[in-house]
Amino acid sequence: MEEKIKIEHLLSDVKDYAEERMNLMILSVQEKTSKAVAGTASLIFVLVLTVFMLGFLSMAAAWFIGQWLNQPSLGFLIVGVFYFIAAIMLWSNREKWVGLPIMNAFLKNISDEED
What we know:
- Helix content is 91%, strand content 0%.
- By secondary structure, the protein is an all-alpha fold.
- The protein is rod-shaped, with a radius of gyration of 28 Å.
């Protein structure tokens, strides 16, 4: 009879352990998901602000160059060529400059290591 009580107690402890382990896994997934969503939202916000800033700075630079050369259209052409060259460089190095940093940031975000 005493062995039966010990076994029932052991089974109860195993059941409690399994439930707590499941709760811990759920909390861990929720934490990682919330970090990923918050990181993505803040990244989108910063990217939108950066696009607006870059747009205004580009227009100002094009206008300044155009005024300096006394041909406004030439200023916009020079800025456009600059962006074309930058796009070619970015495309040719996209894996090293964009792919790997994004992958590393994502893996760091979901890893179990603390900062």
